[in-house]
Amino acid sequence: MKSTTLKGLLLASTLLCSVGLAYGQDAELIIESWRNDDLEIWQSKLIPAFEAKHPGIKVKFTPTAPTEYNAALNFKLEAGSAGDLITCRPFDASLALYEAGHLAPVTDLEGMKNFSDVAKSGWSTDDGSAQFCVPMASVIHGFIYNKDAFDELGLSVPQTEGELFAALDKIKEDGNYVPMAMGTNDQWEAATMGYQNIGPNYWKGEEGRLALIKGDQKLTDDVWVQPYETLAKWKDYLGDGFEAQTYPDSQNMFTLGRAAIYPAGSWEISGFNNLADFQMGAFPPPVRNAGDDCFISDHTDIAIGMNAKTANPEAAKAFLNWVGSEEFATLYANALPGFFSLSDHDVKMDDALAQEFVSWRGKCNSTIRSTYQILSRGTPNLENETWNASANVIRGTESPQDAAKRLQDGLSSWNDNHK
Fold first, then answer.
1. Where are the extended beta strands (E) located within 97-182?
2. Is residue 251 within 8 Å of residue 268, measured between CB atoms?
3. What is the share, in percent, of the chain residues with pLDDT greater than 90?
4. What sign for the dihedral angle of Cα 42, 46, 49, 55?
5. Pairing verdict, β 295-306 and 85-88
6. DSSP string, 267-314
7. Which distant-in-sequence residues (6+ apart) come within 8 Å of 230 by Cβ?
8. Which of 238, 307, 316, 363 would suit a FRET pair with 290, their CA atoms being 20 to 30 Å apart?
9. Measured distance CA(167)–CA(287) in Å, rounded
10. 382-395 vs 222-232: helix axis angle to the nearest 10?
11. 358 domain-assigned
């Protein structure tokens, strides 16, 4: 009797283990990410939703500070101590991880069927034949403004650059608000919310970006220099001490109601909603002349892939397929308004400001940041150099022409298409 009972227990245990292995039961997945702002959302909304449908798979979100993420992740991958799931920045940084064997291919995952080639482009090989991360969201660039300040000063939303500068002049003349909240201390904002924000209207989005990659255009061409000439005019509207102003300083200046306009990415929406006690609106980068086609940076921003050395590949695949689902797309877009789903699902969003940003897709042409694909693979790194050049131009320490020449010379030093 005891022998039969023991055999039965062993058989049951074996079957349970088999089921567990097949479905990734009793597995713990660790997610690496740079989005430390999202910790609470993952813990309270996203992970519980996944775990409810996948009992036995436990998930932990373990973010690193954004500026430290790339270096820390590379160290952990080399040491074999990285998590099972890797949050992926777009294009070259993640492509390098894939080519080094750190990211597993996800091309054949069921969830990848829900994404277009454009959505997948940020995490595909150059020839598009393989994907290595499941797309999560894009972010859109533009300007967020204080509606109360605009109403108080009788300002309408600017449609052209001339109207924007006229509005900035009026705000400055009034003196109650800093016209525009942005500093140059951290440099990246000058490029990301400055040059890459307004630039697509000059180089015509994808037309110019792809021509630059092919070497048919150069950074010293007028369409690439002129955005710097416009940026140089921003200096007069950024307030005293903007040179030492950090990114958090700018966020605080705007959310405390001390500035009227904030050159923005849509990723600011959820944070600003929690901090600002005034009505906010948003407008796309104003076109140069009335009637011009408009272009927006609708940047493929974030995805998630699988550590090629994970001990829990089946559980990781289950999670990645869920990231490709309508449930995840809806949860993520509403938990983080301003991060827009890249999937083909019809995602309903509740946030009015997020709806305003995403509505621009219907009237403007979408592109991505010009430096992210291929052009930042060498040394000097074009993305990082663009940060510095943009900040210098706004500060007035480098002319638009000199900045463009320096960037072009750096690109030509290693990129065959630009020699």
1. 134-146, 178-180
2. yes
3. 88
4. negative
5. antiparallel
6. GGHHHHHHH--S-EEEEPPPBSSTT---EEEEEEEEEEEEBTT-S-HH
7. 161, 198
8. 238
9. 15
10. 40
11. no
CA distance 181 to 158: 17
The pLDDT of residue 118 is 80
- Tens digits of per-residue pLDDT, 216-230? 999 999 999 999 999
CA distance 225 to 137: 30
Q: 155 and 276: one domain?
A: yes
* 244 in the same domain as 148: yes
Question: 278-326: per-residue pLDDT in tens?
Answer: 999 999 999 999 999 999 999 999 999 999 999 999 999 999 999 999 9
Structure-token pair, residue 297: 């940076």
Are 222 and 164 found together in one domain? Answer: yes
> CATH no. for residue 187?
3.40.190.10
Same domain, 190 and 318: no
Domain range enclosing 266:
139-298+366-418
Q: Quote the number of domains for the chain.
A: 2
Residue 171, classified by CB atoms within 10 Å of its CB into exposed (0-12), middle (13-18) or buried (19+), is buried
Do 81 and 219 fall into the same domain?
Answer: no
Q: What is the pTM of this model?
A: 0.84
Strands 178-180 and 134-146 turn out to be unpaired
Residues in a beta bridge with 280 = 146
273 lies in the same domain as 385: yes
